[in-house]
Amino acid sequence: MTTLKKIWKFVGSMRFAIILLVVLAAACAAGSLITQGQSYDWYAQRYSERAAGLILALGLDDAFHSIWFIAITAFLCLNLTLCNLTRLPQLIRRVTAEGRSEGALRTPGDVSREHIDDPETMFARLRMPKPIACATEDGRKALFASRHRIGLWGAWVCHLGILLLILGFGLGQMTQKQYAVYGVPGDVKPIGETGCFLTIDDFSIERREDGSAAQYVADITVLNSKSAGPAGGSATISVNHPATLCGMKFYQNSVGWAAKVNLLEGGEPLQEAVICAGEYLPVEDKPELVIYLNALYPDYVLTPGVGPSTASDQLNNPAYLYSVYYQGQLLGMNALMAGEALTIDDYTVTFTEPQPYTLIAIKADRFTWLALLGGLTILLGLILAFYLQPAKVWAIREDGGAWTVFGASDKGGAIFKERFERAMERKK
Predict the structure, then answer these.
(1) Which of 215, 376, 383, 413 could cross-link with 206 by S-S, CB 3.0 to 4.6 Å?
(2) Dihedral (C-alpha) 167, 169, 175, 176: value to the nearest 10 degrees?
(3) Per-residue pLDDT reduced to its tens digit, 143-193
């Protein structure tokens, strides 16, 4: 055997498959335990500089898109494909042989019983199909039946399902798009570069008797365009209850606070808008002047030496932490209580109508169907392997007119033998 054939044989071997599965499991664990997509400084702050360098060098900051993860997935798919293709001709021959009487009539079977007067009754008791008449090599009459030959495909189908599952997961991770949209009811926000828009129809917080949040619920609609595009669908989503619309999955991810910003110029209304904490609002007639909402504290508490915080998530004492920038330079930062106003030259700024906003995570995975197909294929393979047990029964007529009944099962031999014995005993 040449070196190339040895390598090819090893690539398609079970040993190589086990090695790849162990490495793939370790890679998935690393990708799940290490926060993805962060910077060197972020990793260095949480781990160490050496660990941060190692994470970036090995591509663990984006494990599912790294070259080594793609290589592992590709080799595993190649291994499973070679395993299935190599076994396929042999499996076809085996399944075909199970349905033929020639090989069975030359063997003693796994179990047998002599002196049977009515063999067809024994076939029926064993739940075998109607036997076909045949003959042994020496010319004696014989009967033969087989069932559940399809069960021999169980392991092969399981391998195929695993291949599809890995392909679906691997391709999905490598091509998956993730977006985040946040806002308050009435907002229409673009979903990345998809061309679709998300309308937040409603958002509510379900509370327990003690006032703590029990569930966050958002009603959403996906539009094919911002203005008059047809709706791609509507749904209600909540924590752990996502919805699928337009080929994307929508998750209720987190919440925050928003408020209405009211701007007056010379005492006259100039501008108003609802912004979320972390957003800014440029002044219409002076865009270099920017109002930034740093945070909203629904139950404001100022602790000396600690700073501002909130005592609860109830709107008992709302306060608005703001910053003002002019031409990119910070002019000031402070907290406004309800009813207080900020004056900047001729401008007056107030914050009103504190309200929660929802952050919705969106994932677009074009290969979810392939992973689902793989899971269903594995389930089918398990049913074939464990529920449908291939068996064959044959009877040979002896010289005195009685019959000897034989049986064999390639899987579940002990169970088949017990059933065979029970069927034979019932003749008494």
Answers:
(1) 215
(2) 160
(3) 999 999 999 999 899 989 988 998 888 888 778 888 999 999 999 999 988
Taking the C-alpha atoms of residue 167 and residue 79, their distance in angstroms, rounded to an integer, is 12
Strand partners, 147: 391
What would the pLDDT profile of 305-345 be if each residue is shown by its tens digit? 878 888 888 889 999 999 999 998 999 999 999 889 999 98
Supply the mean pLDDT for the chain. 87
Whether the CB-CB separation of 146 and 392 falls below 8 Å is answered with: yes
The single-letter DSSP state of residue 287 is E
Tokens of 52: 């941060």
Q: What angle do CA 211, 213, 214 make, to 5 degrees?
A: 115
- Write the DSSP assignment of 318-360 as a string of letters: -EEEEEEEETTEEEEEEEEETT--EEETTEEEEEEEEEEEEEE
Contact 365, 172 (CB under 8 A): yes
Give the separation between CA 80 and CA 308, rounded to whole angstroms: 58
How many angstroms separate the most distant Cα atoms in the chain?
A: 121
pLDDT at 72 > cutoff 80: yes
Query: Which residue shows structure tokens 């408020």?
Result: 259
For residue 126, give both structure tokens.
């064993």
Residue 199: strand, helix, or coil: strand
What CA–CA distance (Å, rounded) separates 286 from 304? 36
Residues 6+ positions from 270 with CB-CB distance below 8 Å = 263, 264, 283, 284, 285, 347
